[in-house]
Amino acid sequence: MADLTQLAGSPTASPETATAAASGEKRIFVTPKAVGKIRDAFAREKVSGGLRLGVLGGGCSGLSYQFKFAPEPRPRDHVFHFDDVRVFVDPKSMLFLDGMTLDCKIL
């Protein structure tokens, strides 16, 4: 599996986030740089589908992020489209990830 640990999420306050929050719409955002990295990881691993983002119990704060390839969304998933990249988030994780921006930092 590809190393997706270079992808990092952080909340932002953008006009799009404010509009989504005001409407009650659940949203996440992925920067163009992160979309490119996700696309590259899918090509390198020769997989298709989408990137599953999740929040699991564990880690220093009691929660940890999960990034993994998924062939298809689950029936109750929120599905986000960024160009040709799909991102799947389950409803429980969406409670924590709503409004976040996924970006990529090159070390």
Overall description:
With 107 residues, this protein is of the alpha/beta class. The protein has a single domain (7-104), classed as Sandwich (Hypothetical Protein Aq_1857, Chain: A). The protein is built from three helices and seven strands; from the N terminus they run βαβαββββαβ. Strands 4-3-6-5 form a four-stranded mixed beta sheet. A three-stranded mixed beta sheet has the order 1-7-2. The protein is globular and about 30 Å long. Mean pLDDT is 82; it is low at 1-21.
Structural class: alpha/beta
N-to-C series of helices and strands: EHEHEEEEHE
Q: What overall geometry do the principal axes of the alpha carbons give?
A: globular
- Spatial ordering of strands, largest sheet: 4-3-6-5
Share in helix: 25-40%
Summarize the structure.
The protein has 107 residues and is α/β, with parallel strands linked by helices. The chain has 3 helices and 7 strands; from the N terminus they run βαβαββββαβ.
Task: Provide the fold topology.
Elements: E1 7-11, H1 15-23, E2 29-30, H2 32-45, E3 50-57, E4 63-70, E5 78-82, E6 85-89, H3 91-97, E7 100-104
Parallel strand pairs: 2-7, 3-6
Antiparallel strand pairs: 1-7, 3-4, 5-6
